[in-house]
Design goal:
Blueprint lengths: L3 H16 L4 H6 L5 E8 L3 E2 L3 H11 L4 E4 L6 E2 L4 E8 H30 L8 E3 L9 H10 L13 E3 L1 H7 L2 H11 L6 E5 L2 H10 L3 E5 L3 H11 L4 E5 L7 H7 L3 E3 L2 H4 L6 E7 L2
Parallel strand pairs: 6-11, 7-8, 8-9, 9-10, 10-11
Antiparallel strand pairs: 1-5, 1-12, 2-4, 3-5
Length: about 280
């Protein structure tokens, strides 16, 4: 899941954003001793994600709240499905409501999108759909978890976790051969070296210098087929740039190893989840 210290820090920041001045409406209209049962409800088809986050938001505000999880993360549900119950102080539930929903709506939207993309890979294909570092600042750990809940995969987590030589690195280093050679000298033996290429000639140079993974950026369909043949057994191939859901099946049939999709996180539509309160007293 997500490291507790990271989750706690993210939640504290989000709650401070909403409650630094208190909750004027709740404090003015709801008595301190009021209790309620709140039901979180899916209002659209989705892959559910964020149960631990939902509960953590509630507990961070009020340890006395009781949270019941009805659906596990990674489950596909239909509209009308009850996801989580919260029981306890009405004031606490109302104060935590928007922050909790903001998290789970976004995470469930990402999980749903990831599921769509990975499900579009043809049966029997080895192709993996992966995310990118195009995540919401501060929320990467949560969003990458949501990608996994949807059945897709994670790319490198941060700049220190892998070597990925892109166009600006190539310009600064003086080309593919020089950049890959330098990377081999610096990177630990456990680290693969990936390089981004834009032409078949660049692909040939990357193969010749021994790149482990080659990212084909915005290749035309005909060029992709040639690239797959040339790289077979010599390097993993990743395709990026302008990836739509409609292209996934074609890429899977070509035998591409990885398809990186920034849209899994940077432009996803939030899932529709509501929280309905029933007064208990």
């Amino acid at each position: 899941m997500i490291a507790p210290n990271i989750l706690e820090s993210i939640i504290d920041s989000a709650l401070a954003e909403d409650l630094s001045g208190g909750d004027l409406t709740t404090e003015a209209t709801v008595s301190k001793d009021s209790r309620a049962l709140a039901r979180a409800l899916a209002k659209s088809s989705m892959v559910v994600c964020g149960g631990d986050v939902f509960a953590a938001v509630m507990f961070r505000l009020d340890r006395g709240l009781r949270v019941e999880r009805l659906v596990e993360d990674g489950t596909a549900v239909q509209p009308g499905t009850e996801l989580w119950h919260v029981e306890g102080s009405t004031r606490s539930i109302l104060m935590a409501e928007r922050t909790a929903l903001n998290f789970v709506q976004r995470l469930s939207g990402i999980a749903t999108q990831a599921h769509r993309y990975q499900s579009a890979v043809p049966a029997g294909s080895k192709t993996r759909i992966t995310d990118t570092r195009k995540t919401t600042p501060g929320l990467r750990a949560l969003e990458r978890y949501a990608v996994r809940c949807g059945g897709a995969f994670n790319h490198r987590n941060d700049l220190g976790s892998a070597v990925l030589i892109k166009d600006n690195h190539l310009e600064a280093a003086g080309g593919i051969t020089e950049a890959v050679t330098r990377a081999r000298l610096r990177a630990p033996h456990t680290c693969k070296v990936e390089v981004e290429v834009e032409t078949l000639a660049m692909l040939d140079e990357a193969l010749a210098v021994g790149a482990d993974i080659i990212m084909l950026d915005n290749f035309a369909p005909a060029e992709l087929a040639v690239a797959c043949e040339r790289a077979k057994g010599r390097a993993l191939l990743e395709v990026s740039g302008g990836i739509t859901l409609e292209r996934v099946a074609e890429l899977g049939r070509l035998g591409v190893d990885l398809v990186s999709v920034g849209a899994l996180t940077h432009s996803v539509v939030a899932a529709d989840i509501s929280l309905n309160i029933e007064r208990l007293g």
